[in-house]
Amino acid sequence: MQETHTDILIIGAGPSGLALANQLERYGVRYRIIDQNKERSRYSKALVMHPRTLEMMDLLGLSESFLQAGTPYKEITFHYNEDLLAVLDFTNISVSADFPFVNVIPQSRTEEILESGLSPHRVEREMTLTGLEQKEGVVHASVRKANGEETITARYAVGCDGAHSTTRDLLQIPFTGESEEVNVMLADVKLAAPKNDISLTSSDRGLVFLAPFQGEYTRVIVIDYKKQGDDFPEEVTLADMEDSLAEIYPETLSLHDPYWISSFSASHRQASSYREGNVFLAGDAAHIHNPIGGQGMNVGIQDAMNLGWKLAYTVQHNLNETLLDSYHAERAPVAEEVIKKTSYLMKGMTIKSHYGIKARNQGMKWLLPNKKVQTKITENMAQLDVDYSFTKFAKSFRKFTNVKKVESGNRVPDVSFLTPAKEEKTLYSMLREEPFLYLIMAGRGDAPQYQEAVRNAVVAFNSRVGDMLKPLFITFDEVDDPREITDMNSELYMDLNEESNERLHVTPGDMVVIRPDAYVLLHTSITETDQLTKALVNYFGHSL
Ligand SMILES: Cc1cc2nc3c(=O)[nH]c(=O)nc-3n(C[C@H](O)[C@H](O)[C@H](O)COP(=O)(O)OP(=O)(O)OC[C@H]3O[C@@H](n4cnc5c(N)ncnc54)[C@H](O)[C@@H]3O)c2cc1C
Questions:
Q1: Predicted pLDDT of residue 543
Q2: What distances in angstroms separate CA 188 from CA 14, 67, 113, one per listed residue?
Q3: Which residues are in the FAD-binding domain (predicted)?
Q4: Which of 118, 139, 161, 257 could form a Cys-Cys staple with 12, CB 3.0–4.6 A?
Protein backbone atom coordinates (compact mmCIF):
# COMPACT_ATOMS: atom_id res chain seq x y z
CA MET A 1 0.00 0.00 0.00
CA GLN A 2 1.23 3.46 -0.92
CA GLU A 3 1.97 5.82 2.02
CA THR A 4 2.18 9.58 1.60
CA HIS A 5 2.25 12.66 3.84
CA THR A 6 0.75 16.14 3.71
CA ASP A 7 0.01 18.90 6.21
CA ILE A 8 -3.73 19.19 5.64
CA LEU A 9 -6.02 16.66 4.00
CA ILE A 10 -9.40 17.86 2.73
CA ILE A 11 -11.96 15.10 2.20
CA GLY A 12 -14.60 16.18 -0.32
CA ALA A 13 -14.46 18.68 -3.18
CA GLY A 14 -17.91 20.25 -2.89
CA PRO A 15 -18.24 23.99 -2.24
CA SER A 16 -16.94 23.73 1.37
CA GLY A 17 -13.85 21.66 0.53
CA LEU A 18 -13.02 23.78 -2.52
CA ALA A 19 -13.35 27.05 -0.57
CA LEU A 20 -11.00 25.66 2.07
CA ALA A 21 -8.52 24.52 -0.59
CA ASN A 22 -8.54 28.00 -2.14
CA GLN A 23 -7.49 29.52 1.16
CA LEU A 24 -4.78 26.97 1.91
CA GLU A 25 -3.37 27.41 -1.57
CA ARG A 26 -3.19 31.18 -1.10
CA TYR A 27 -1.30 30.76 2.17
CA GLY A 28 1.10 28.33 0.51
CA VAL A 29 0.27 25.50 2.92
CA ARG A 30 0.92 21.92 1.87
CA TYR A 31 -2.48 20.30 1.38
CA ARG A 32 -4.35 17.66 -0.62
CA ILE A 33 -8.01 17.55 -1.60
CA ILE A 34 -9.64 14.24 -2.52
CA ASP A 35 -13.11 13.36 -3.80
CA GLN A 36 -14.79 10.02 -4.38
CA ASN A 37 -16.44 11.14 -7.62
CA LYS A 38 -14.85 10.79 -11.03
CA GLU A 39 -15.94 14.27 -12.04
CA ARG A 40 -17.59 17.39 -10.71
CA SER A 41 -21.32 17.14 -10.05
CA ARG A 42 -23.53 18.50 -12.86
CA TYR A 43 -26.43 19.24 -10.50
CA SER A 44 -27.52 22.77 -9.87
CA LYS A 45 -28.42 22.13 -6.17
CA ALA A 46 -27.60 25.40 -4.36
CA LEU A 47 -28.67 28.33 -6.53
CA VAL A 48 -28.46 31.24 -4.15
CA MET A 49 -25.16 32.83 -3.21
CA HIS A 50 -25.73 35.38 -0.46
CA PRO A 51 -23.96 38.74 0.02
CA ARG A 52 -21.65 37.59 2.85
CA THR A 53 -20.50 34.64 0.74
CA LEU A 54 -19.84 37.04 -2.15
CA GLU A 55 -17.69 39.05 0.25
CA MET A 56 -15.81 35.84 1.07
CA MET A 57 -15.37 35.18 -2.65
CA ASP A 58 -13.96 38.70 -2.92
CA LEU A 59 -11.40 37.76 -0.26
CA LEU A 60 -10.44 34.81 -2.46
CA GLY A 61 -10.24 37.08 -5.53
CA LEU A 62 -13.14 35.24 -7.18
CA SER A 63 -16.11 37.60 -6.78
CA GLU A 64 -15.83 38.94 -10.35
CA SER A 65 -16.09 35.41 -11.78
CA PHE A 66 -19.17 34.73 -9.66
CA LEU A 67 -20.83 37.97 -10.69
CA GLN A 68 -20.14 37.32 -14.36
CA ALA A 69 -21.50 33.78 -14.20
CA GLY A 70 -24.53 34.54 -12.03
CA THR A 71 -27.66 36.68 -12.14
CA PRO A 72 -28.16 39.30 -9.42
CA TYR A 73 -31.65 39.62 -7.89
CA LYS A 74 -32.40 42.57 -5.66
CA GLU A 75 -35.80 41.39 -4.51
CA ILE A 76 -37.74 38.32 -3.45
CA THR A 77 -41.53 38.60 -3.57
CA PHE A 78 -44.03 36.77 -1.37
CA HIS A 79 -47.63 36.14 -2.46
CA TYR A 80 -50.66 34.43 -1.05
CA ASN A 81 -52.47 33.34 -4.21
CA GLU A 82 -52.45 36.59 -6.20
CA ASP A 83 -52.22 38.83 -3.16
CA LEU A 84 -48.78 40.45 -2.74
CA LEU A 85 -47.78 40.01 0.92
CA ALA A 86 -44.29 41.47 0.94
CA VAL A 87 -41.16 42.27 -1.02
CA LEU A 88 -37.80 41.53 0.55
CA ASP A 89 -35.54 44.24 -0.81
CA PHE A 90 -31.81 43.52 -0.64
CA THR A 91 -30.89 47.11 -1.54
CA ASN A 92 -31.63 47.85 2.14
CA ILE A 93 -28.21 46.46 3.00
CA SER A 94 -26.28 48.66 0.56
CA VAL A 95 -25.11 50.95 3.38
CA SER A 96 -22.95 48.20 4.77
CA ALA A 97 -22.42 45.85 1.83
CA ASP A 98 -21.01 46.10 -1.67
CA PHE A 99 -23.19 43.24 -2.91
CA PRO A 100 -26.78 44.26 -2.08
CA PHE A 101 -28.39 41.35 -3.94
CA VAL A 102 -28.43 37.57 -4.08
CA ASN A 103 -26.39 36.06 -6.87
CA VAL A 104 -28.23 33.19 -8.52
CA ILE A 105 -25.81 30.63 -9.91
CA PRO A 106 -26.05 26.83 -10.13
CA GLN A 107 -23.87 24.96 -7.66
CA SER A 108 -22.17 23.13 -10.55
CA ARG A 109 -20.86 26.53 -11.78
CA THR A 110 -19.94 27.55 -8.23
CA GLU A 111 -17.80 24.43 -7.88
CA GLU A 112 -16.25 25.03 -11.31
CA ILE A 113 -15.25 28.59 -10.38
CA LEU A 114 -13.93 27.54 -6.98
CA GLU A 115 -11.88 24.80 -8.63
CA SER A 116 -10.54 27.31 -11.17
CA GLY A 117 -9.05 29.23 -8.22
CA LEU A 118 -6.73 26.26 -7.51
CA SER A 119 -3.67 25.29 -9.47
CA PRO A 120 -4.54 22.75 -12.20
CA HIS A 121 -5.48 19.16 -11.24
CA ARG A 122 -5.36 19.84 -7.51
CA VAL A 123 -8.55 17.87 -6.88
CA GLU A 124 -7.65 14.18 -6.74
CA ARG A 125 -10.72 12.32 -7.95
CA GLU A 126 -11.85 8.73 -7.47
CA MET A 127 -10.25 8.78 -4.03
CA THR A 128 -12.66 7.59 -1.34
CA LEU A 129 -11.98 7.92 2.36
CA THR A 130 -12.59 4.54 4.02
CA GLY A 131 -10.74 4.71 7.34
CA LEU A 132 -9.41 7.24 9.81
CA GLU A 133 -7.11 6.87 12.81
CA GLN A 134 -5.33 9.42 14.98
CA LYS A 135 -2.07 8.52 16.71
CA GLU A 136 0.20 10.95 18.55
CA GLY A 137 -1.19 14.00 16.82
CA VAL A 138 -1.03 12.50 13.34
CA VAL A 139 -4.07 11.62 11.22
CA HIS A 140 -3.87 8.38 9.20
CA ALA A 141 -6.47 8.35 6.43
CA SER A 142 -7.13 5.17 4.43
CA VAL A 143 -8.17 5.98 0.90
CA ARG A 144 -9.51 3.68 -1.83
CA LYS A 145 -8.36 4.71 -5.29
CA ALA A 146 -9.29 3.61 -8.79
CA ASN A 147 -6.07 1.55 -8.86
CA GLY A 148 -5.45 0.49 -5.26
CA GLU A 149 -5.19 1.83 -1.73
CA GLU A 150 -3.26 4.67 -0.15
CA THR A 151 -2.63 5.78 3.41
CA ILE A 152 -2.31 9.53 3.69
CA THR A 153 -0.84 10.84 6.92
CA ALA A 154 -1.55 14.47 7.75
CA ARG A 155 -1.24 16.90 10.65
CA TYR A 156 -4.88 17.84 10.19
CA ALA A 157 -7.81 16.54 8.15
CA VAL A 158 -11.10 18.25 7.35
CA GLY A 159 -14.23 16.27 6.46
CA CYS A 160 -16.08 18.32 3.84
CA ASP A 161 -17.74 15.15 2.61
CA GLY A 162 -21.36 16.19 2.75
CA ALA A 163 -24.48 15.16 4.65
CA HIS A 164 -23.60 11.45 4.67
CA SER A 165 -20.06 12.20 5.82
CA THR A 166 -17.80 9.16 6.18
CA THR A 167 -15.41 11.32 8.21
CA ARG A 168 -18.15 12.07 10.74
CA ASP A 169 -19.17 8.40 10.92
CA LEU A 170 -15.57 7.23 11.39
CA LEU A 171 -15.11 9.77 14.19
CA GLN A 172 -18.41 8.56 15.70
CA ILE A 173 -19.63 12.12 16.09
CA PRO A 174 -23.42 12.13 16.68
CA PHE A 175 -25.47 13.91 13.98
CA THR A 176 -28.71 14.64 15.77
CA GLY A 177 -31.87 16.32 14.58
CA GLU A 178 -35.18 15.38 13.07
CA SER A 179 -37.30 15.16 9.97
CA GLU A 180 -39.56 18.15 9.34
CA GLU A 181 -42.16 15.80 7.82
CA VAL A 182 -42.35 17.79 4.59
CA ASN A 183 -41.88 16.20 1.15
CA VAL A 184 -40.58 18.55 -1.51
CA MET A 185 -40.60 18.27 -5.34
CA LEU A 186 -37.97 20.10 -7.34
CA ALA A 187 -37.20 20.65 -11.01
CA ASP A 188 -34.89 22.83 -13.08
CA VAL A 189 -36.95 23.40 -16.22
CA LYS A 190 -37.85 25.82 -18.95
CA LEU A 191 -41.15 27.66 -18.51
CA ALA A 192 -43.38 28.36 -21.48
CA ALA A 193 -43.70 31.92 -20.09
CA PRO A 194 -40.47 32.64 -18.16
CA LYS A 195 -40.53 34.80 -15.00
CA ASN A 196 -38.26 37.71 -14.19
CA ASP A 197 -38.06 37.51 -10.44
CA ILE A 198 -37.60 35.18 -7.47
CA SER A 199 -40.92 34.49 -5.79
CA LEU A 200 -42.51 32.40 -3.08
CA THR A 201 -46.24 31.83 -3.46
CA SER A 202 -48.40 30.10 -0.88
CA SER A 203 -52.01 28.95 -1.03
CA ASP A 204 -54.28 26.77 1.09
CA ARG A 205 -52.99 23.77 -0.86
CA GLY A 206 -49.21 24.35 -0.76
CA LEU A 207 -46.16 26.39 -1.60
CA VAL A 208 -44.32 27.24 -4.85
CA PHE A 209 -40.85 28.75 -5.17
CA LEU A 210 -39.65 30.05 -8.54
CA ALA A 211 -36.13 31.27 -9.34
CA PRO A 212 -35.06 31.95 -12.93
CA PHE A 213 -31.39 31.26 -13.64
CA GLN A 214 -28.94 31.24 -16.53
CA GLY A 215 -31.37 32.99 -18.85
CA GLU A 216 -33.44 30.00 -19.87
CA TYR A 217 -34.02 27.81 -16.80
CA THR A 218 -36.20 28.19 -13.72
CA ARG A 219 -35.83 26.35 -10.41
CA VAL A 220 -39.33 25.23 -9.44
CA ILE A 221 -39.86 23.92 -5.90
CA VAL A 222 -43.29 22.63 -4.93
CA ILE A 223 -44.70 21.53 -1.58
CA ASP A 224 -48.17 20.08 -2.10
CA TYR A 225 -50.01 19.36 1.18
CA LYS A 226 -52.06 16.67 -0.56
CA LYS A 227 -48.94 14.84 -1.74
CA GLN A 228 -47.20 14.06 1.53
CA GLY A 229 -46.15 10.87 3.31
CA ASP A 230 -47.55 7.80 1.54
CA ASP A 231 -49.17 10.03 -1.11
CA PHE A 232 -45.83 11.46 -2.23
CA PRO A 233 -44.87 10.11 -5.69
CA GLU A 234 -42.17 7.45 -5.64
CA GLU A 235 -40.46 9.11 -8.58
CA VAL A 236 -41.48 12.71 -9.23
CA THR A 237 -42.36 13.58 -12.84
CA LEU A 238 -43.07 16.88 -14.57
CA ALA A 239 -46.71 15.82 -14.78
CA ASP A 240 -46.82 15.43 -10.95
CA MET A 241 -45.43 18.91 -10.59
CA GLU A 242 -47.76 20.45 -13.17
CA ASP A 243 -50.77 18.85 -11.45
CA SER A 244 -49.73 20.34 -8.11
CA LEU A 245 -48.88 23.72 -9.64
CA ALA A 246 -52.36 23.87 -11.17
CA GLU A 247 -53.81 23.53 -7.66
CA ILE A 248 -51.40 25.88 -5.86
CA TYR A 249 -50.19 28.56 -8.27
CA PRO A 250 -52.64 31.27 -9.40
CA GLU A 251 -51.74 30.98 -13.09
CA THR A 252 -50.96 28.10 -15.43
CA LEU A 253 -47.29 27.15 -15.50
CA SER A 254 -46.25 24.90 -18.31
CA LEU A 255 -42.90 23.14 -17.71
CA HIS A 256 -40.66 21.59 -20.34
CA ASP A 257 -37.07 20.49 -21.06
CA PRO A 258 -36.21 19.44 -17.50
CA TYR A 259 -32.49 19.57 -16.71
CA TRP A 260 -32.98 18.01 -13.30
CA ILE A 261 -35.98 16.60 -11.43
CA SER A 262 -35.59 15.58 -7.82
CA SER A 263 -37.33 15.29 -4.49
CA PHE A 264 -36.35 15.30 -0.86
CA SER A 265 -37.77 15.21 2.59
CA ALA A 266 -36.84 18.27 4.66
CA SER A 267 -34.88 17.58 7.84
CA HIS A 268 -32.31 19.23 10.07
CA ARG A 269 -29.31 17.75 11.87
CA GLN A 270 -26.09 19.01 13.40
CA ALA A 271 -22.85 17.36 14.47
CA SER A 272 -22.37 17.56 18.24
CA SER A 273 -18.75 18.59 17.70
CA TYR A 274 -16.95 20.09 14.70
CA ARG A 275 -13.61 18.79 15.94
CA GLU A 276 -12.26 15.48 17.18
CA GLY A 277 -8.52 15.64 17.83
CA ASN A 278 -6.91 16.85 14.64
CA VAL A 279 -9.91 16.19 12.41
CA PHE A 280 -12.57 18.81 11.68
CA LEU A 281 -15.98 18.83 10.01
CA ALA A 282 -17.25 21.59 7.71
CA GLY A 283 -20.30 22.24 5.54
CA ASP A 284 -23.05 19.65 5.19
CA ALA A 285 -20.88 17.15 7.07
CA ALA A 286 -21.46 19.34 10.14
CA HIS A 287 -25.03 20.58 9.56
CA ILE A 288 -28.04 20.17 7.29
CA HIS A 289 -31.41 21.91 7.26
CA ASN A 290 -34.32 22.60 4.95
CA PRO A 291 -33.62 24.71 1.84
CA ILE A 292 -35.83 27.71 2.74
CA GLY A 293 -33.70 30.83 2.43
CA GLY A 294 -30.98 29.00 0.45
CA GLN A 295 -28.55 29.03 3.38
CA GLY A 296 -26.76 25.64 3.40
CA MET A 297 -23.94 26.05 0.91
CA ASN A 298 -23.38 29.59 2.13
CA VAL A 299 -22.92 28.42 5.72
CA GLY A 300 -20.56 25.66 4.53
CA ILE A 301 -18.36 28.04 2.54
CA GLN A 302 -18.19 30.36 5.53
CA ASP A 303 -17.23 27.44 7.80
CA ALA A 304 -14.33 26.85 5.43
CA MET A 305 -13.35 30.53 5.43
CA ASN A 306 -13.35 30.51 9.24
CA LEU A 307 -11.23 27.37 9.51
CA GLY A 308 -8.80 27.91 6.62
CA TRP A 309 -6.65 30.72 8.01
CA LYS A 310 -6.62 29.14 11.47
CA LEU A 311 -5.26 25.88 10.08
CA ALA A 312 -2.80 27.69 7.82
CA TYR A 313 -1.35 29.82 10.62
CA THR A 314 -1.27 26.95 13.08
CA VAL A 315 0.77 24.88 10.62
CA GLN A 316 3.00 27.72 9.44
CA HIS A 317 3.63 29.46 12.76
CA ASN A 318 3.30 26.51 15.12
CA LEU A 319 0.56 28.29 17.02
CA ASN A 320 -1.11 27.00 20.12
CA GLU A 321 -4.07 24.74 19.35
CA THR A 322 -6.56 26.96 21.20
CA LEU A 323 -6.96 29.01 18.02
CA LEU A 324 -8.38 25.88 16.36
CA ASP A 325 -10.89 25.40 19.17
CA SER A 326 -12.42 28.74 18.24
CA TYR A 327 -13.67 27.12 15.00
CA HIS A 328 -16.41 25.05 16.66
CA ALA A 329 -17.09 27.84 19.17
CA GLU A 330 -17.70 30.36 16.39
CA ARG A 331 -19.33 28.28 13.68
CA ALA A 332 -21.56 25.75 15.50
CA PRO A 333 -23.88 28.47 16.90
CA VAL A 334 -24.25 29.93 13.38
CA ALA A 335 -25.62 26.63 12.01
CA GLU A 336 -27.73 26.16 15.13
CA GLU A 337 -29.35 29.53 14.46
CA VAL A 338 -29.89 28.71 10.76
CA ILE A 339 -31.54 25.41 11.73
CA LYS A 340 -33.89 27.23 14.12
CA LYS A 341 -34.67 29.93 11.57
CA THR A 342 -35.31 27.63 8.59
CA SER A 343 -37.47 25.24 10.66
CA TYR A 344 -39.50 28.18 11.93
CA LEU A 345 -39.86 29.60 8.41
CA MET A 346 -40.89 26.21 7.04
CA LYS A 347 -43.58 25.93 9.73
CA GLY A 348 -44.74 29.49 9.08
CA MET A 349 -44.85 29.16 5.31
CA THR A 350 -46.64 25.78 5.35
CA ILE A 351 -49.19 26.69 7.99
CA LYS A 352 -52.57 25.15 7.15
CA SER A 353 -55.18 26.50 9.57
CA HIS A 354 -57.39 29.31 8.28
CA TYR A 355 -56.59 31.60 11.23
CA GLY A 356 -52.91 30.75 11.09
CA ILE A 357 -52.72 31.69 7.39
CA LYS A 358 -54.61 34.92 8.04
CA ALA A 359 -52.36 35.91 10.94
CA ARG A 360 -49.17 35.10 8.99
CA ASN A 361 -50.32 37.08 5.94
CA GLN A 362 -51.38 40.09 8.02
CA GLY A 363 -48.12 39.93 9.94
CA MET A 364 -46.07 39.95 6.74
CA LYS A 365 -48.07 42.81 5.22
CA TRP A 366 -47.78 44.85 8.37
CA LEU A 367 -44.17 44.16 9.39
CA LEU A 368 -42.18 43.89 6.17
CA PRO A 369 -42.76 47.41 4.80
CA ASN A 370 -41.04 48.74 7.94
CA LYS A 371 -37.52 49.70 6.89
CA LYS A 372 -35.88 48.57 10.14
CA VAL A 373 -37.58 45.18 10.00
CA GLN A 374 -36.68 44.81 6.30
CA THR A 375 -33.03 45.63 6.94
CA LYS A 376 -32.83 43.22 9.86
CA ILE A 377 -34.39 40.37 7.88
CA THR A 378 -32.32 40.98 4.74
CA GLU A 379 -29.09 41.25 6.75
CA ASN A 380 -29.97 37.98 8.40
CA MET A 381 -30.81 36.17 5.13
CA ALA A 382 -27.66 37.64 3.58
CA GLN A 383 -25.65 36.26 6.54
CA LEU A 384 -24.20 39.73 7.07
CA ASP A 385 -25.18 39.63 10.74
CA VAL A 386 -23.01 36.59 11.48
CA ASP A 387 -21.00 37.71 14.47
CA TYR A 388 -18.61 35.97 16.85
CA SER A 389 -18.61 38.50 19.69
CA PHE A 390 -20.50 36.07 21.96
CA THR A 391 -17.63 33.54 22.15
CA LYS A 392 -15.19 33.28 25.04
CA PHE A 393 -12.38 33.99 22.54
CA ALA A 394 -13.90 37.36 21.62
CA LYS A 395 -14.80 38.12 25.23
CA SER A 396 -11.18 37.48 26.26
CA PHE A 397 -10.28 40.75 24.49
CA ARG A 398 -12.65 42.86 26.55
CA LYS A 399 -10.33 43.14 29.52
CA PHE A 400 -7.66 44.62 27.26
CA THR A 401 -9.68 47.56 25.95
CA ASN A 402 -11.93 50.34 27.13
CA VAL A 403 -13.28 51.04 23.64
CA LYS A 404 -16.73 49.52 23.23
CA LYS A 405 -17.87 50.84 19.82
CA VAL A 406 -16.81 47.77 17.88
CA GLU A 407 -16.38 44.35 19.41
CA SER A 408 -14.03 41.52 18.69
CA GLY A 409 -15.96 39.15 16.41
CA ASN A 410 -17.97 41.82 14.53
CA ARG A 411 -18.06 41.57 10.74
CA VAL A 412 -15.76 43.95 8.83
CA PRO A 413 -17.43 45.33 5.68
CA ASP A 414 -15.25 46.36 2.76
CA VAL A 415 -14.03 49.98 2.68
CA SER A 416 -12.40 51.95 -0.16
CA PHE A 417 -9.27 53.99 0.50
CA LEU A 418 -7.03 56.21 -1.63
CA THR A 419 -3.26 56.10 -1.67
CA PRO A 420 -1.46 59.49 -1.47
CA ALA A 421 -1.03 59.06 -5.27
CA LYS A 422 -4.89 58.92 -5.43
CA GLU A 423 -5.10 55.27 -6.46
CA GLU A 424 -8.07 53.37 -5.08
CA LYS A 425 -7.45 50.35 -2.87
CA THR A 426 -10.03 48.35 -0.94
CA LEU A 427 -9.62 46.86 2.49
CA TYR A 428 -10.57 43.42 1.16
CA SER A 429 -7.92 43.58 -1.55
CA MET A 430 -5.37 44.25 1.20
CA LEU A 431 -6.72 41.31 3.24
CA ARG A 432 -6.05 39.16 0.18
CA GLU A 433 -2.40 40.14 0.27
CA GLU A 434 -1.60 40.38 3.96
CA PRO A 435 -2.26 38.30 7.08
CA PHE A 436 -3.73 40.46 9.87
CA LEU A 437 -4.32 44.11 9.09
CA TYR A 438 -3.62 46.52 11.90
CA LEU A 439 -5.44 49.75 11.08
CA ILE A 440 -4.24 52.81 12.92
CA MET A 441 -6.75 55.61 12.50
CA ALA A 442 -4.38 58.54 12.50
CA GLY A 443 -4.90 62.27 12.58
CA ARG A 444 -2.44 64.93 11.45
CA GLY A 445 -0.14 66.02 14.23
CA ASP A 446 -0.72 63.23 16.71
CA ALA A 447 1.71 60.80 15.11
CA PRO A 448 4.71 61.36 17.40
CA GLN A 449 2.66 60.52 20.48
CA TYR A 450 1.92 56.96 19.52
CA GLN A 451 4.26 55.93 16.73
CA GLU A 452 6.85 54.50 19.04
CA ALA A 453 4.20 52.45 20.82
CA VAL A 454 2.80 51.14 17.53
CA ARG A 455 6.26 50.19 16.35
CA ASN A 456 6.94 48.35 19.61
CA ALA A 457 3.61 46.53 19.46
CA VAL A 458 4.20 45.27 15.94
CA VAL A 459 7.77 44.19 16.67
CA ALA A 460 6.75 42.51 19.95
CA PHE A 461 3.94 40.60 18.30
CA ASN A 462 5.66 39.62 15.07
CA SER A 463 8.81 38.45 16.84
CA ARG A 464 6.85 36.09 19.10
CA VAL A 465 3.97 34.85 17.00
CA GLY A 466 5.30 35.18 13.45
CA ASP A 467 5.34 37.90 10.85
CA MET A 468 1.60 38.32 10.78
CA LEU A 469 0.70 41.84 11.82
CA LYS A 470 0.76 44.45 9.06
CA PRO A 471 0.32 48.07 10.24
CA LEU A 472 -1.58 50.47 7.96
CA PHE A 473 -2.18 54.11 8.75
CA ILE A 474 -5.57 55.49 7.73
CA THR A 475 -6.41 59.18 7.78
CA PHE A 476 -9.61 61.08 7.06
CA ASP A 477 -7.45 64.05 5.95
CA GLU A 478 -6.11 64.69 2.47
CA VAL A 479 -2.32 64.36 2.54
CA ASP A 480 0.29 64.48 -0.19
CA ASP A 481 3.19 63.17 1.81
CA PRO A 482 2.78 60.12 4.10
CA ARG A 483 5.38 61.60 6.44
CA GLU A 484 2.78 64.17 7.49
CA ILE A 485 1.15 61.28 9.37
CA THR A 486 3.80 58.65 9.97
CA ASP A 487 7.52 58.19 9.57
CA MET A 488 7.23 54.46 10.24
CA ASN A 489 7.78 53.55 6.63
CA SER A 490 4.27 52.05 6.71
CA GLU A 491 1.62 52.35 4.09
CA LEU A 492 -0.75 55.27 4.45
CA TYR A 493 -4.27 55.45 3.03
CA MET A 494 -6.79 58.26 2.92
CA ASP A 495 -10.44 57.69 3.69
CA LEU A 496 -11.81 61.00 2.48
CA ASN A 497 -15.47 59.88 2.53
CA GLU A 498 -15.03 58.57 6.08
CA GLU A 499 -16.39 55.24 4.90
CA SER A 500 -14.55 53.40 7.66
CA ASN A 501 -16.51 55.50 10.12
CA GLU A 502 -19.83 54.78 8.39
CA ARG A 503 -19.24 51.07 7.87
CA LEU A 504 -16.77 50.06 10.57
CA HIS A 505 -17.61 52.76 13.14
CA VAL A 506 -14.00 53.81 13.72
CA THR A 507 -12.73 57.34 14.23
CA PRO A 508 -9.27 58.95 14.54
CA GLY A 509 -7.48 57.62 17.59
CA ASP A 510 -8.83 54.07 17.15
CA MET A 511 -6.88 50.96 16.29
CA VAL A 512 -8.43 47.84 14.80
CA VAL A 513 -6.87 44.48 14.09
CA ILE A 514 -8.71 42.63 11.32
CA ARG A 515 -8.71 38.86 10.83
CA PRO A 516 -8.08 37.32 7.40
CA ASP A 517 -11.78 36.36 7.15
CA ALA A 518 -12.87 39.99 7.62
CA TYR A 519 -13.95 39.94 11.26
CA VAL A 520 -12.63 42.25 13.97
CA LEU A 521 -9.99 40.64 16.15
CA LEU A 522 -9.52 43.63 18.41
CA HIS A 523 -10.63 47.23 18.50
CA THR A 524 -8.93 49.57 20.90
CA SER A 525 -7.48 53.04 21.26
CA ILE A 526 -4.01 54.18 20.22
CA THR A 527 -3.40 55.00 23.87
CA GLU A 528 -3.72 51.28 24.70
CA THR A 529 -1.08 49.95 22.34
CA ASP A 530 0.82 47.97 24.98
CA GLN A 531 -2.41 46.18 25.85
CA LEU A 532 -2.79 45.26 22.20
CA THR A 533 0.35 43.15 22.22
CA LYS A 534 -0.71 41.38 25.40
CA ALA A 535 -4.18 40.69 24.02
CA LEU A 536 -2.92 39.31 20.72
CA VAL A 537 -0.15 37.19 22.14
CA ASN A 538 -2.66 35.79 24.62
CA TYR A 539 -5.12 35.01 21.80
CA PHE A 540 -2.52 33.14 19.81
CA GLY A 541 -1.56 31.12 22.87
CA HIS A 542 1.95 32.52 23.32
CA SER A 543 3.20 34.22 26.45
CA LEU A 544 5.08 37.47 26.76
C1 LIG B 1 -32.24 20.90 -3.99
C2 LIG B 1 -31.26 21.64 -3.18
C3 LIG B 1 -31.25 23.02 -3.21
C4 LIG B 1 -30.35 23.73 -2.46
N5 LIG B 1 -30.34 25.09 -2.53
C6 LIG B 1 -29.43 25.80 -1.82
C7 LIG B 1 -29.29 27.22 -1.97
O8 LIG B 1 -29.97 27.86 -2.76
N9 LIG B 1 -28.34 27.86 -1.23
C10 LIG B 1 -27.54 27.17 -0.37
O11 LIG B 1 -26.71 27.81 0.30
N12 LIG B 1 -27.62 25.83 -0.23
C13 LIG B 1 -28.53 25.12 -0.94
N14 LIG B 1 -28.55 23.75 -0.86
C15 LIG B 1 -27.62 23.05 0.02
C16 LIG B 1 -26.26 22.84 -0.66
O17 LIG B 1 -26.40 22.11 -1.85
C18 LIG B 1 -25.32 22.12 0.30
O19 LIG B 1 -25.35 22.80 1.53
C20 LIG B 1 -23.89 22.08 -0.25
O21 LIG B 1 -23.77 21.20 -1.34
C22 LIG B 1 -22.93 21.60 0.83
O23 LIG B 1 -21.63 21.63 0.32
P24 LIG B 1 -20.50 20.69 0.94
O25 LIG B 1 -19.26 20.99 0.18
O26 LIG B 1 -20.49 20.84 2.40
O27 LIG B 1 -21.01 19.20 0.66
P28 LIG B 1 -21.33 18.50 -0.74
O29 LIG B 1 -21.72 19.47 -1.76
O30 LIG B 1 -22.26 17.39 -0.43
O31 LIG B 1 -19.92 17.90 -1.19
C32 LIG B 1 -19.37 16.76 -0.55
C33 LIG B 1 -18.31 16.16 -1.46
O34 LIG B 1 -17.66 15.11 -0.73
C35 LIG B 1 -17.47 13.99 -1.58
N36 LIG B 1 -17.41 12.80 -0.72
C37 LIG B 1 -18.41 12.26 0.02
N38 LIG B 1 -17.96 11.18 0.70
C39 LIG B 1 -16.65 11.04 0.39
C40 LIG B 1 -15.63 10.11 0.77
N41 LIG B 1 -15.87 9.10 1.62
N42 LIG B 1 -14.39 10.26 0.26
C43 LIG B 1 -14.12 11.28 -0.61
N44 LIG B 1 -15.05 12.17 -1.01
C45 LIG B 1 -16.29 12.07 -0.51
C46 LIG B 1 -18.67 14.02 -2.51
O47 LIG B 1 -18.40 13.35 -3.72
C48 LIG B 1 -18.88 15.53 -2.72
O49 LIG B 1 -18.19 16.00 -3.85
C50 LIG B 1 -29.45 23.02 -1.62
C51 LIG B 1 -29.45 21.62 -1.60
C52 LIG B 1 -30.34 20.93 -2.38
C53 LIG B 1 -30.33 19.42 -2.36
A1: 55
A2: 20, 21, 21
A3: 6-341
A4: 161
HEC per residue, 36-54: CCCCCCCCCCCCEECHHHH
Alpha carbon of 160 to ligand 1 centroid (Å): 9
Domain-wise residue ranges, the chain: 2-63+107-174+272-350, 178-267, 392-539
The fraction of the chain above a pLDDT of 90, given in percent, is: 74
Residue 507 half-sphere exposure toward CB, CA atoms < 13 A: 3
The order of strands in the sheet holding 71-73 is: 48-49, 102-104, 71-73
Maximum separation of any 2 CA atoms in the chain, in Å: 77
Whether ligand 1 lies within 6 angstroms of the CB of 106 is answered as: no
Q: Are 283 and 17 in contact (CB under 8 A)?
A: yes
Q: Which amino acid is at 248?
A: I
Concatenate the DSSP letters of all residues of 291-331 into one string: -TTS-HHHHHHHHHHHHHHHHHHHHHHT--THHHHHHHHHH
Q: Per-residue DSSP letters for 144-199?
A: EETTEEEEEEEEEEEE---TT-HHHHHHT--EEEEEEEEEEEEEEEEESS--SSEE
Please tell me the residue having the least CA distance from ligand 1 atom 35. 12
Domain 2-63+107-174+272-350 has CATH 3.90.1150.10: no
The CATH number for 178-267, chosen from 3.40.50.2300, 3.40.50.300, 3.10.50.40, 3.30.70.2450, is 3.30.70.2450
pLDDT tens per residue across span 393-407:
898 888 888 777 889
Architecture of domain 392-539: 3-Layer(aba) Sandwich (3.40)
b/e burial code for range 348-378 (CB count within 10 A of at least 16 → b): ebbbeeeeeeeebbeebeeebeeeeebbebb
Q: Measured in angstroms, how far is the CA atom of residue 297 from the centroid of ligand 1?
A: 7
CA dihedral 531, 532, 533, 537 (to 10 degrees): 110
